[in-house]
Structures are given as structure tokens and as C-alpha cells.
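Problem 12. The chain below contains 367 residues. Write out its predicted structure in C-alpha cell notation.
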Amino acid sequence: MPIQHPNRVDTVDAAMQVALSLAAEGPARDPNPRVGCVLLAPPAAGGGPRRILGRGFHRGAGTPHAEAAALADARASGEDARGATAVVTLEPCAHTGRTPSCADALLAAGVAEVVFAVADPNPVASGGAARLRAAGVRVVEGVLAAAGEGLVRVWLTNVTERRPFVTLKLASTLDGKVAAADGSSQWITSEQARAHAHGRRSEACAILVGTGTQRADDPSLSVRGPAADLGAQPLRAVMGLREVAAGAAVRATPELFVHLETRDPARAIDALADRGVRHLIVEGGPSISAAFLRAGLVDEIDAYLAPILLGDGANSVSSLDIGSLRDARRWVTQAVHPLGQDTFIRLVRGPGAAEQPAAAATFGVAA
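Solution.
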């Protein structure tokens, strides 16, 4: 069901919230960032809420950008954008490629003010704010910047670090176990948690496990359930030097399978980047998780905690070679919400989370 947006807003922050919700309707796996835009009527003489003249979001590479879509929406409704304020989640681009420059489109429409959340770090497309200012348009940047950055975190990492964005998925008991002492692990988390994890898989380009997990669990690494209707299936990647059996579940769709014959996360990342992977979910096991953490290649952690205590069993992460609490990796909690009896926690990098030298990044033979 389409999201219902207000026709008027009281503040620029409220307008940006609308733009962010529009942006979230764009495709998660697209090489372009998800961007939303709303056009506000000029403020009335007596103040008060401002009318929304047009709305738009980017629907994927090759389609109109959010600003062009919002301008087209305004024109279709008979609205005039002259003197309007454009509220955009990302700095309007100054580049003409498959689509025209958004900065030029806003100037041609007579927009008087542009407000955006996140500056564009892409040297090919940046410069829109400077072009608008040079033409006399008032530009305000950094409005709800944290929310804007969260929405395009995958794309920002692709552009600034030139590698896939990496999510580490951990599903464990309260005491951090992923299997009992006898090796049993299905199922630690609830159906609700597993359904949520499939939704996250549907947003990623590739899912990765080590050869140890592949041999122990024979996972398909596919998107199943309602989330399977949300988009194409991800690439199924198995990392390690041991062979992957011809009848393994990950080989069910050969064109979606890749065996990364390395123990080095950096090499694995490079190989996946060459295949066009922009967002990777690492699903384990413990040695693989530790290797990516030691390499400083984890951007966020999706942790699913079940209200179970085992005491003994396999840890969710192998040794990180940390001997003191003062050397612990610090992560920042970004979101917490219940999933049935389980709890989902999203964490992002904190101070020191990516400061381990890559020399210690490979995982052991057992993985």
C-alpha cells in the first residue's frame, strides 16, 4: 500500500521527514543512492504551514532523479515551482549523464531555496550546492543529516571506500552462543526473527558464509518467505579453501553461486566488488565473523538475540585477540526492537571499530 504523505508541513524538518520516507520507497539494491524530494510553496505572508507542491523519489538507475520527479509531479498538478523550496535528502547533482543535472533543473524551474540532508561525496556528481549558490539560490545543508546518511549508508561506503558495504549478521543466545555443546543450532531464534533476516537478505547483493558453516548446515543462502517477492535473489558466496560439494544447496542456482577460495576478507571483498556487489551480508560462522571484524571490514552488525541461556557451546564470534577491556571494539546502538520473543539490535561502528591491522585478518583452517 502506498505511503500516505501530508499535503502541508509546519517545518523544514517535517518536510525532510517526508522526503526521507519517499526516498525509502526506492530500490535498496540499485547502484544509485535512494533519494527523495518535496517542493514547498513559498511561505505565506502570515506564516503557517506550507503546501507541498510536488513529491518525487529516484526509482533506479536510468530513471529521473528525485528532483526531476518532484518537478514533474508539480507540473502534472498545475503547480508553479517558482519561488519554491526544494527539500532533498541528498545534495542535487551537478552532473549530466544518463539523466540531466538536478541543480540545473531546479534553477530552470525558478526554485528559490534548496535544503538537503547529505552532501554528495561523489566527485563525478558533486558541486550542485555551489552551482545553486552561484546562481543566487539560498542553500541549507545538513538538515536531519544522520537520518539521511543512514538511508544511503551503503552507497556512501561504495563511493568513499570503494568497496561493498558489509553487514555482519549474528543470531545467538543471550550468552552469545550460536550452537549448543552437542552442535545443535536449529532454531535458536524465532520465526519472526528469521523472517526479518530474510527481509534483510532481500536488500543485499550477496550473502557470505565460510566453508565450515556451509558443510555443517548446508544453507541455501536464498531469500524465502514473503521477502522473496521484494526483489532478485542475492549472490551466494562461500569463503574458504575447502571444496563445496556438487550437491550443496548453495549450488542450486549455479549463476548465483561463487566460491571465494581465500581466507583473506580483503581479497573476498575485492572479488565481490568485481562482480558488482555493493552490499554484503556476512552470516558466519564464528571464524569468518572474527576475520571480518579483525580486518575492520564490518560497517554494521545485525544482532538477533534469543532469550535462551546455554552456558556451553560455540561462540558467535571467535577470538579477536583482545586481552583487556580497554582494547574492546566499541559499537554504537542504532536501533532496538522486539521480534516475537527475540530482540533485534542494529549497531554501527564506534570509536576504534576499524583500527585493527589487516595482517591479522585471515581466518583459520577450520573455517
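Discussion. The two ends are 44 Å apart (CA to CA). Students who got a different answer should revisit the alignment rule from Section 12.3.
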